[in-house]
């Protein structure tokens, strides 16, 4: 999987983990409440939930500094975790991984429990940064630390393990991770399962069956307003369509994925997908898609 594809993980991760934030189990009694910290924390969380990622990153930095000033282990763990999510959502995968690592070490040093979600956000950040082995270690730690009833964290960690297996061409590993995900009930996890199923089917040479899995993943991510993940799933569906010889269908999906990326100012992915759509449109005499691709690419260059 390319670095561009890996970036799709961040938005869905926030949808699952921000809602599931459990915080650390500090052995120290909690300090008295701090209205200033709590107020800014609410603003930071709202900005993250609303997709205002850059603002969320800035706000979380201030809240985390306040938590350190208070020497509040519980707040350091919770705010640090959400700060890593914000960095991840903002495309700063290496910074997100480092933030998660720093918070984990802080909690370990204080004798506090390191909650599973903190390992998980580090696993996703490491994966996005292309650090396969650290991502695997963190994902396995997340599974080991997750509460028995925390199916979402287990499913998400297995999704990362499945992506790592698929990247390595390990169809058996991808199948095992897909099985261990179970039957996710939450929409972000259902999208993950469909995407991983598509990856597994592609490894088996079953592109015809993989295509609807990617299309369904894109549909779910669209409903979740995860447009990064939606476009990535569309592009994966385009690759599956291309593998079956459906050049017209592939051109359409690549074009739609590229147009979405262009609308979000993600120029690198937009150029990649629109250029492939243009080539396929020319090969298959798709005049409308060809013209639209040329217009979109000119706009990117202008």
Beta-strand proportion: under 5%
* Nearest-integer average pLDDT: 88
In this structure, how is the largest beta sheet organized?
none
Query: Could you name the ranges where pLDDT drops below 50 across 5 or more consecutive residues?
Result: 1-9, 18-27
Distance between the termini: 30 Å
What is the number of helices?
16
What percent of residues adopt helix (DSSP H or I)? over 70%
Query: Radius of gyration over alpha carbons?
Result: 20 Å
Give the helices and strands as they follow along the chain.
HHHHHHHHHHHHHHHH
Task: Give the total of beta strands.
Answer: 0
Structural class: mainly alpha
Dominant shape: globular
Task: Give an account of the 3D structure.
With 302 residues, the chain is mainly alpha-helical. Helices cover 78% and strands 0% of the residues. α2 packs antiparallel against α5 and α11 packs antiparallel against α12 (207-223).
Summarize the SSE layout with pairings.
Elements: H1 3-6, H2 9-17, H3 35-49, H4 53-70, H5 73-89, H6 93-109, H7 116-128, H8 132-145, H9 151-167, H10 171-181, H11 187-203, H12 207-223, H13 227-243, H14 247-263, H15 267-283, H16 287-301
Helix pairs in contact: 2-5, 2-7, 3-4, 4-5, 5-6, 5-7, 6-7, 7-8, 7-9, 8-9, 9-10, 9-11, 10-11, 11-12, 12-13, 13-14, 14-15, 14-16, 15-16
Characteristic key phrases:
302 residues, mainly alpha, 16 helices, globular, disordered N terminus
């Amino acid at each position: 999987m390319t670095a561009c594809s890996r970036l799709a993980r961040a938005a869905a991760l926030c949808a699952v983990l921000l809602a599931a934030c459990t915080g650390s189990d500090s052995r120290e009694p909690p300090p008295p409440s701090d209205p200033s910290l709590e107020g800014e924390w609410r603003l930071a969380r709202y900005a993250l939930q609303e997709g205002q990622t850059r603002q969320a990153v800035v706000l979380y930095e201030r809240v985390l500094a306040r938590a350190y000033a208070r020497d509040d282990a519980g707040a350091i763990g919770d705010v640090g975790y959400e700060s890593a999510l914000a960095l991840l959502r903002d495309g700063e995968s290496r910074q997100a991984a480092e933030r998660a690592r720093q918070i984990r070490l802080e909690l370990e040093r204080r004798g506090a429990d390191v909650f599973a979600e903190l390992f998980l956000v580090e696993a996703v950040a490491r994966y996005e940064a292309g650090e396969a082995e650290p991502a695997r270690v963190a994902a396995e730690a997340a599974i080991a630390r997750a509460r028995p009833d925390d199916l979402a964290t287990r499913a998400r960690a297995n999704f990362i393990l499945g992506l790592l297996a698929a990247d390595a061409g390990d169809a058996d590993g991808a199948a095992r991770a897909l099985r261990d995900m179970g039957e996710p009930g939450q929409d972000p996890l259902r999208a993950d399962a469909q995407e991983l199923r598509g990856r597994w089917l592609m490894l088996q040479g079953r592109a015809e069956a993989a295509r609807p899995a990617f299309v369904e993943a894109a549909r779910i991510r669209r409903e979740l307003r995860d447009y990064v993940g939606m476009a990535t799933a569309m592009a994966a569906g385009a690759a599956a369509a291309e593998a079956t010889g459906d050049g017209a269908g592939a051109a359409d999906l690549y074009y739609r994925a590229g147009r979405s990326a262009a609308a979000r100012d993600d120029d690198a992915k937009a150029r990649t997908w629109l250029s492939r759509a243009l080539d396929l449109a020319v090969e298959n005499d798709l005049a409308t898609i060809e013209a639209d691709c040329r217009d979109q690419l000119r706009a990117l260059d202008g």
